[in-house]
Design a protein that fits this description.
378 residues; alpha/beta; Aspartate Aminotransferase, domain 1; seven-stranded mixed sheet; three-stranded antiparallel sheet; iron-sulfur; iron; Aminotrans_V_dom
Length: 378
């Protein structure tokens, strides 16, 4: 089996697994307890928080641990909107956000908030001028993802952050797909809130984070104890957080090397398709993209047959977001780029790279994909 769906989730790194199991075996105290068992857990929690904060160029106190990216997005949107309701009710986002943001916005609309969904260009990119035009005196939140999970397009986050300086709007970016793959500096990006998730960078599932800039207030979603500086109630998942920190250490160390490796993988895919005379088009091919994600349209094929045949051939890929792929609904991202009638909605495949792959594996996958596509083209 060849796993090319790392944008959906990643295998846990052996060193991460070791750190996770070591914490499970040796550190079981509640980090809020004052006895030695609690203090041991608290130290591991604090050390892990410091590692992750440093990767974002943030302060440890600005990191809130969550159950994953979806919760982090929800805290960012609902927490900010509800805390700033007296200043306005307008929110700006894009048409190609992850559903954790889009569906949160839809829920906020039911509660009286007004949401502007910015369209994107042919490469899935939003332009700073669009944000500037959409801003009003009632805008309290702008949420724009760093890199798209389906097509990989990177948005001009730093420039949008510069635009928002001096405006009351809080700036959030969903960096779930980007964290651990590209360098992120919350200060250079000028963001107030940033979401990330461990399972996208070879860490355990069920743990994520929300970076929240010092001094910013968000209303909590959970009510209970005073964990996470009263911002997220509930006993922290210390072993998973320790695994998260280990995954971040490894990702930071391997990032530059992986970028080069993923570029070679993309080149092998396209060269193999060309050599086999397979018709294809890279979606958002003209954009700056995350290095591990490439979305390719194969004209004349049907996505269901394509995915089934590739799975039978031992190749795991996706037609889009893992949160909706099970239903094979048309991609809202490609719809926003190409229109709801485009054939790309029924013939596009996302290949995404990560741990355990090498050039020979990619070459095998490309050859098998070529055979399948040529067989299925109508």
């Amino acid at each position: 089996m060849i796993y090319l769906d790392h944008a959906a989730t990643t295998p846990i790194h052996p060193e991460v697994n070791a750190a996770y199991m070591r914490a499970m075996d040796t550190v079981f105290g509640n980090p809020s307890s004052i006895h030695s068992f609690g203090r041991n857990s608290r130290k591991l929690l604090d050390d892990s928080r410091k590692v992750i904060a440093e990767a974002l160029h943030a302060e440890p106190t600005e990191i809130i641990f969550t159950s994953g990216g979806t919760e982090a997005d929800n805290v960012a949107l609902f927490g900010t909107a509800n805390s700033l309701i007296e200043k306005g009710n307008h929110i700006i986002t894009t048409a190609i956000e992850h559903h954790a943001v889009l569906n949160s916005c839809k829920e906020l609309e039911k509660n009286g908030f007004q949401v502007t969904y910015l369209p994107v260009d042919e490469n899935g990119k939003v332009h700073v001028a669009q944000v500037a035009d959409a801003l009003t005196e009632k805008t309290i939140l702008v949420s724009i993802m760093y890199g798209n999970n389906e097509i990989g397009t990177i948005q001009p986050i730093k420039e949008i952050g510069e635009l928002l300086k001096g405006h009351q709007a809080v700036f959030h970016t969903d960096a779930v797909q980007a964290f651990g793959v590209v360098e992120l500096d919350v200060n250079e990006l000028n963001v107030d809130l940033l979401s990330a998730s461990a399972h996208k960078l070879n860490g355990p599932k069920g743990v994520g984070l929300l970076y929240q800039r010092k001094g910013l207030q968000t209303n909590p979603l959970l009510f209970g104890g005073e964990q996470e500086r009263k911002r997220r109630a509930g006993t922290e998942n210390v072993p998973a957080i320790a695994g998260f920190a280990e995954a971040v250490k490894i990702a930071q160390k391997e990032m530059a090397k992986n970028r080069i490796k993923y570029a070679s993988f993309e080149k092998i895919l396209m060269e193999t398709f060309e050599q086999n005379e397979v018709a294809f088009e890279v979606n958002a091919g003209g954009a700056e993209r995350l290095p591990h994600v490439i979305n390719i349209s194969f004209p004349g094929t049907d996505i269901e047959s394509l995915l089934v045949n590739m799975d039978m051939a031992g190749i795991a890929v996706s037609s889009g977001s893992a949160c909706t792929a099970g239903s094979l609904e048309p991609s809202h991202v490609l719809s926003a780029i190409c229109g709801s009638e485009t054939s790309k909605l029924r013939n596009s495949v996302r290949f995404s790279f990560g741990l355990g792959l090498d050039e020979e594996i990619i070459r095998q996958a490309a050859e098998k994909t070529s055979e399948i596509v040529k067989r299925l083209v109508k």
